[in-house]
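Hi V.,

Quick status before I head out on leave. The structure for the redesign project is tokenized and pasted below; the design run finished overnight.
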């Protein structure tokens, strides 16, 4: 199973209609809703905001006013056929005045997502955990060195330092080997 490393965008034009595709890594349905709203704000006045996403076993899509099965399902098919997960693909369409027909719409939405996928780094999803560690200030340099390959999502500085981050299941052994106390906040997540 794979995902994309960063968000990316690509635009194609087919018979005067403009198709703007954004691929976005997402981790929750809340992320999806936020990104869709951001896209709608960014591209005001578009005729359609069609999308599909997969997060773990959850698969959703929307034709957003296009004929049934001509936008959302083709977008979802591209995501699935590339074995992607934790990905949102949203295609914004500005209608150019020429009707494409059902087959033309399916091809246009498929092509839009396929072209965008060519410009993004695809990475393997790994099972992991969301953990927190709490340590004294005098271990700051050692901990930062050990975690240099991880994105620390939250940092708190009080009597001690607290970091929250996601770690691959196999790399959790690094924390254990260095006798760093940790708490598992979420188990069996994809990172």
């Amino acid at each position: 199973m794979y995902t994309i490393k960063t968000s990316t965008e690509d635009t194609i034009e087919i018979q005067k209609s403009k198709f703007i595709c954004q691929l976005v890594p997402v981790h929750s349905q809340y992320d999806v809703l936020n990104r869709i709203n951001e896209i709608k704000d960014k591209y005001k006045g578009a005729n359609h905001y069609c999308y599909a996403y997969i997060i773990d076993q959850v698969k959703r899509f929307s034709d957003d006013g296009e004929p049934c099965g001509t936008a959302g399902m083709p977008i979802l098919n591209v995501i699935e056929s590339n074995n992607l997960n934790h990905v949102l693909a949203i295609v914004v369409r500005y209608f150019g005045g020429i009707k494409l027909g059902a087959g033309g719409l399916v091809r246009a939405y498929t092509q839009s997502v396929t072209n965008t996928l060519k410009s993004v780094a695809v990475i393997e999803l790994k099972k992991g955990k969301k953990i927190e560690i709490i340590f004294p200030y005098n271990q700051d340099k050692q901990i930062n060195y050990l975690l240099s390959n991880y994105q620390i999502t939250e940092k708190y500085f009080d009597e001690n330092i607290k970091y929250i981050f996601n770690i691959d299941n196999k790399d959790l052994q690094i924390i254990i080997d260095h006798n760093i106390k940790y708490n598992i906040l979420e188990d069996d997540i994809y990172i």
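Above is the designed sequence. The radius of gyration is 21 Å.

G. will cover questions while I'm gone.

Best,
W.
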